[in-house]
Amino acid sequence: MAEISGHTGLVELLGSPVEHSLSPAIHNCSFGELGIDAVYLVAEATPETVGDAIAGARALGLWGLNVTMPCKNAVIEHLDGLSPAAEIMGAVNTIAVEDGKLIGHNTDGAGLLRSVAEAGFDVVGKKMTVIGAGGAGSAVFTQAAVDGVGQISVFNARDEFFDATEERIRDLASRTGADVKLYDLGDTQVLAREIGESLVVVDATRVGMAPLEDQSNVQGEWLHAGQAVVDTVYHPLETKLLKIAAEAGATAIDGLGMLLWQAAIAEEIWFGRTMPVDVVRSRVFS
């Protein structure tokens, strides 16, 4: 991070809780490497107070913002516009100042797809399976549809949100022309088939994170060499899913890739600069 002066800009993360966020370490390291005269801080905000936080950001002339849970949806009504992907997702994690207006973006799904591309996989026109249709999963399959992934199979527990998710996926397919279908996660026969046919498999659930470290939504015999298998969990770094993926000969991609690349894409939006991802990865996570 550059020395703070009267010219130093402020970028801030809004959400709750945010005190344990890795974003300040990631962005301040990157700002320092790139010579960007800015500092990245965090601030507590809830859906009830995020409007006041955005008004404060306008008044103080912040250079950009990130938004995390539980404010990704609630912040939208306080912005001046949305990117196409953020509009479809109905969720924002990055806010840019564009011609004096605050424009909401969502870099979560793009970050995961960038981590897959970094591993050497081109998903355009190919098949992908996404497990979990919550915030992370929705961002992934929405961005995949926008980016031209050929077929997207989404699996989610048949809970009280299943019907609403199915409607949202139909709307996504209509708006993007993508082949997106929702399945019941409890139907393991269909899950095994779709995973076996997919170039990329993404688990966007909490399975693999404490207290579910010894569990996986995927069985090793469903996987094979030539696939990319991604777990959005990054603590622990090697989940059970990634262990069995490696044993099956697939390329295992941990959740740090999504975390780093969504941050890198945010910096591209704010400053038009390319984050030195390898340097940040080595300094922040080694």
Automatic annotation (TrEMBL):
Gene3D superfamilies: Leucine Dehydrogenase, chain A, domain 1, NAD(P)-binding Rossmann-like Domain. SUPFAM superfamilies: Aminoacid dehydrogenase-like, N-terminal domain, NAD(P)-binding Rossmann-fold domains. GO terms for molecular function: NADP binding; shikimate 3-dehydrogenase (NADP+) activity. It comes from the Bacteria. Shikimate binds at S21, L22, S23, T68, N93, D108, Y234, Q262. Its EC number is 1.1.1.25. Residues 13-95 form the Shikimate dehydrogenase substrate binding N-terminal domain. Pathway: Metabolic intermediate biosynthesis; chorismate biosynthesis; chorismate from D-erythrose 4-phosphate and phosphoenolpyruvate: step 4/7. It is an enzyme of class 1 (oxidoreductase). The keyword Metal-binding does not apply. The keyword Chaperone does not apply. Keywords: Amino-acid biosynthesis, Aromatic amino acid biosynthesis, NADP, Oxidoreductase. Residues 255-284 form the SDH C-terminal domain. It catalyses: shikimate + NADP(+) = 3-dehydroshikimate + NADPH + H(+). The active site is at K72. InterPro entries: Aminoacid_DH-like_N_sf (IPR046346), NAD(P)-bd_dom_sf (IPR036291), SDH_C (IPR041121), Shikimate_DH (IPR011342), Shikimate_DH-bd_N (IPR013708), Shikimate_DH_fam (IPR022893). One of its GO terms (biological process) is shikimate metabolic process. NADP(+) binds at G132, A133, G134, G135, A136, T232, G255. Belongs to the shikimate dehydrogenase family. Homodimer. Involved in the biosynthesis of the chorismate, which leads to the biosynthesis of aromatic amino acids. Catalyzes the reversible NADPH linked reduction of 3-dehydroshikimate (DHSA) to yield shikimate (SA). This is Shikimate dehydrogenase (NADP(+)). It comes from Ancrocorticia populi. The gene is aroE.
